[in-house]
Amino acid sequence: MAKTSIIFDLDGVIVDTAKFHFLAWKNLANSIDINFTEQENEQLKGVSRIKSLEKILQWGNKKLSQDEFDRLMHQKNTEYLTFVDQMTEDDILPEVKPTLDFLKSKGTPIALGSASKNAKRILKQVNLTHYFDAIVDGTVVTKAKPDPQVFVTAAKQLNSKPQNCIVFEDSVAGVQAANAAEMLSVGIGKTPVLGEANYVFSDFTEISQNFLEKLLNQ
E-assigned strands of 20-164? Predict the structure, then answer.
């Protein structure tokens, strides 16, 4: 029987870096007199840095020169990375590490599939790099979710067929990408939001080892 492989998204699944993105975007927006709310931040999940800044400018009805646009993008990333560089293992979301330990004990191939260009830096910072047999991030892929490129690439790197892969995702676009790749999708978050996933749990504290065992043997 072909081995089941697992692909994890990063932000919102393994670590919560959304709060750092929010702080950095809020500071940027405030610096150009735009009010930025948590609701708006939700709409930037899984969206590239360029598109995110375009959306913020649209909401604030502002236009910038290309130089100013580039400067602000650089400023946002620099500030975000100062938060990332203060991360510790305490920033790993609840029960993620025991889940990774369990999967490793079963010899499960594990990949990361994230749009983040800072994925390797974050994994290193929270001491999780050694769990992953493949890391596919924004430095490797060009198409954003819901395009399945990131997950298809991860499956290839694990020498797995897409139909033998299970994806853990917290965003609608990510779930759609997993489904488009014909992988089994497990949503981490709220059911009304992630209803397109095959299964939805609010976090890993709700996922039992029995359930994981069942998934691996499907």
Answer: 110-113, 134-136
Task: Write out the two tokens for 64.
Answer: 């910038």
107-144 pLDDT tens trace: 999 999 998 889 999 999 999 999 999 999 999 999 98
Asked about 90 being catalytic, the answer comes back as no
Considering the candidates 9, 91, 137, 170, report the single residue annotated as catalytic: 9
- Which token pair is 154? 């991860």
- Correct CATH for 18-84 of 1.10.150.240, 3.40.50.1380, 3.30.470.20, 1.10.10.10: 1.10.150.240
Is the pTM higher than 0.85?
yes
Ramachandran assignment for 159, one of left (phi > 0), alpha (psi -120 to 50 degrees), beta (any other): left
Q: Helix (H, G, I), strand (E, B), or coil: what is residue 178?
A: helix
Rounded to whole angstroms, how far apart are CA atoms 213 and 101? 13
Distance CA 103, CA 99 (A): 6
pLDDT at position 32 is 96
- Which residue has better confidence, 167 or 145? 167
Residue 9 is among the residues annotated as catalytic for this protein = yes
Q: Which of 11, 91, 137, 170 is catalytic?
A: 11
Residue 111 pairs in a beta bridge with: 7, 134
SS3 of residue 168 by DSSP: strand
